[in-house]
Amino acid sequence: MSTEQEQTITPHVPVNDPSSEPVSGKTKVEGAQIGGLFEAISKGRPVESVVYPDGATEDAVLEIDDFNLWYGDAKALHNTTFAAAKGKVTALIGPSGCGKSTLLRSVNRMNDLIDSVRIEGQMRLNGDPVYGKSVDVIELRKRIGMVFQKPNPFPMSIFENVIYSLRIDGVRNKSTLEEICEQSLRGAGLWDEAKDRLKESALRLSGGQQQRLCIARAIAAEPEVLLLDEPCSALDPIATGRIEDLIEDLKGTYSILIVTHNMQQASRVSDNTAFMYLGRLVEYGPTEQIFLSPKLKETEDYVTGRFG
Amino acid sequence: MTLTAPVPTSQPEAPKQPGWRRRRQSSLTAHGEPMIWLTGGSLAVCLLMIFGLLGLVVYQGGRTFWPREIVRIERKDGGVLFGQVTNSSTYVPEGLALESMSEDSANVLRAAMGDAEDPSPIGRRQLRTENFDLTGTHYNWVDEPLIASEERPEWAMIVERLEKGRFYGEPVAFLVDDEVTAEGPDAAWQQFQDRHGEVRERFERYKTLEDKDLGRAYDKIEDARLELRGVEMRKGSSSAEYREEKAAYDATVAAAEAEAAVVQEKIDGLKAQNEVYALRMRTGDGMELDLALEQIVRAVPTNQLGFGDKVAVYKDRWLEFLLDDPRSANSEGGVWPAIFGTVIMTLIMSIMVVPLGVLAALYLREYAKQGILVSIVRIAVNNLAGVPSIVFGVFGLGFFCYIFGTSIDQLLFSERLPNPTYGKGGILWASLTLALLTLPVVIVATEEALAAVPNSMREGSYACGATKWQTIRRIVLPRAQPGIMTGAILAIARGAGEVAPLMLVGAVKLAPDLPIELSKFPYVFPERSFMHLGFHIFDVGFQSQNSEAAKPMVYTTTLLLIGIVVTLNMMAILIRARLRRRIQAAR
Asked: pTM score, two decimals?
C-alpha cells in the first residue's frame, strides 16, 4: 500500500511524514476522533506510548526496552518499552492478537521455541539481561514462573508436579521436597484439598484445582516474576474467583505479570495496567487511572467496551 | 426463430420461504442405514476369515498328536490297507482313474456309479498307512465299493522310530540276540514294555556322552589346533614358539584322543547292550520285520487304548514336540531348537530395534529442524516399511554376513579361516536384519506417539526451566511410552513371523546346537546358525523328501508359531498396560 493511498484514506491524521514522525495518541482534552490513533497503528506508523507508571521505574523487576519481535516477516511487537514494578500485579489488556501473550512469552523466552521468531531490543530481569549470547536460557527460566491459559499439569502425581522444578535441579532430599511441596500448595491455596492425595495423579483434579496446581508448580521455584497467561480463561466463575483471590494473596511476595481479556479481572487484581493494540503499547499506568480516567480516548473506549 | 415466451430469468423470483429446501423425510442414505450394514458386514467378513484361519489351524494342529485307531481294510482285488483313516470324500472316477485299475475293480466302480450318463459319486477314504521304507507311500486312498472287509485289529500298533518315520503293524515276537524270547503279540508287548525303558535310558545316556564328553574332547583338539594355527600365522612355522606350541598341541591331542577313546568305549558298551533287543513286527500284508528296540521311540497299541491312555499319549507327544530335537528328517520329534531360535532371535531383534528406533524418532521429531530434509527422511523411512522382506535378507547377507562378518573373521578369528565364523548366516545377523526390517515400524509409531504429546506439556516443562532433554525424559517419553510400546508390539509381531530374509542370513533346516549353551565357554554363540519355526514350517511342509508325511506337523508347527507370536505380543501388551497404569491417570 503506497503512502499516497494512506494519506487519502486517513486525511484527518495530522501527520506530514508518517514514516519518520511518531504519532502520539490524542488526549481526550483535544477531543480527537475515535480511531485516529488505532488507524495510524493499523497503517503501521510508529506510535508513542503514553507511559506514566506510578513509581514503577525506580523499583522495577522487569524492564522492557524498545522491544521488537517478528514472526517471520510479520512484526508482532513494535518498540515496546515499559517496566513492571516489583511486588505488584501488572495487567496486560488489549484485543485479541495485540501481542500481549507474545510479550509475556518473550519475558521467559518461550518464543525461542518457535523457529521463525526474531527479536530486537532488550529486557532486564532485576537488572540482568534477558536476551544476549551470554544468557543461559535455562537458568533464566528458572527465575521466572509461568502459568498457561489451559491448565497443563504433567501426567504424574500431584507431589511430583509441584516439585518438578526441584527434580530437574536434582534435589533429592526428601524432607526438603516435602517442605517445598507443602509450602507451594499452601501458597496456591490447594493444600487443604490436596494434602491427602499427593500421590494421586494430578489429572484427577478439577480444572480449577489443576490451574492452582500449576501456580503451585510455578511458585515452587520461587520465581522473581510470575507470568500468568489468561489463567482463568478456561475456568468457571467460581474457580476464577479463587484464582483471583490467590493472585491477591501472592501480590507483594511475587511480582506478577498477567494477561487477561477480562476487564473486570484486570481492574480487580492489578496495580498497573498496560493497554496494547496491534503490537504497540498504547497506554500504561496505574490501573485505577487507566480504568477511570485514561489519558487517551482510545483506552477509554476499550476499557468501557465501546471498542474491541 | 422467435421466442414468444418470456425469458424466465428476467422475472424477479418470488422470495423463498425459510426452510424451502427441506424435505419431509431425510433419505435413507442420510440416515446411514446402508452404511451400518456395509460396515458391519465388512467386520463380519474379516472376523469370519480370521476365525476360519485360526479354527483350521487349531483343529488340524490340535489333532495331529491324538492317537487315532488303526483299521485293516481288505480290498476286493486282494490288496490290504493297514492304517488310520485321515480323510473321507466322494468323487466321480474319470476315465484314466478307471483304466489304471484292474478290470474287475473298474467294473465294481462302474456298477456303483450306476447310470453312465449321470454317474452318482462314490465314497472314498484316505488312510495313513506309513511304512514308507517298505511301500514308498505315506497315504493311500481306497474306494468304498472296493472294500471287501474292514476290521479293527486288536494289536495294531503305531511305532514311532528314530529314523525312517512311523511303522504301522502288529507285534509278533520279541527277540534277544536273535533268539525269540516271547511269541505272540501279548507276550512280545509285555517284554517290550519291560525292556524299552532301560534301552531308551541307555540310549539317552550315550547320546549325552556323545554330545558332551566326546564333543568336549574334540573341542579341545580343535582349540589346540586353532592356537597352533594362530602361532604359525604370527611367528611362522619354523620359529621356536611354533615348535613349542606344536609339542603342546601334540600332547593335547594325545590326551584328548585318549579321553575320547575312553568315552567311546563307554558308548560302544551301551550300544552293544542295546543292540541285542529287537521287536518283530508284521505289516498289514503279512511281511515280517525286526525293529531294533533302540530305534523305537514310542510304540502305542492304539486300538486298545481307553480315553485316559489316549490323553496320556497325546500329552506325551506334545511334550516331546515342545522339548525335543527333531528326528526323521524333521517330520517327527520335537521343534525345541526352532522354538528357542525363534524366541531368542525375536528378543535380540527387539533389544536392538526398540532403542534405535526410539532414538531416531526422537531426533526426527524433537531435535531436527522440520523442513524439506526431515520430510524426505520421513518419507524414506515410511517407504522402507514397504520394501519386500527378501530385499532385507539380501542386504543382510551382503552387508552383515559378507562385509561385516568377514571383517570380524579377519580381525579376530583369522586362525579359523577359511572356515567362516561370523562371515556366514547366524542368529546375530538374522536378528540385525530383522531389526532393520522392523525399524520403520518403530520409528513411525514412536513419531506418532511423540506428536500426540500435547505441546502444552512441553511448554509447561520448559517454563519450569527444564532443558530439552529433561523435558523429553520426564514429560514427553513417559507420555509417549504406551505408543512406543505399540510400535514395539507391531515390530515383534512382524519380526517373529518373518521367514523370507531368514533363509539368507542364518535359518537352517537342522541346527541342534543352540545359540546359548550353558555348559560351554563362552556360553553365548551369536554366530551360530539357528532353527526358526517359520522356516521350519516351510522346510518340513514343502522342502523335505517326505513332506507328505510331515503335513500334520505343518499344522502343529503353525499352531505353535501362532501361539509364540501371541505370547510375545501379550507380554508386550501387559508391559504396556503396566506402564500406562504407572504413568497415566486411571480416570
From this structure: 0.79
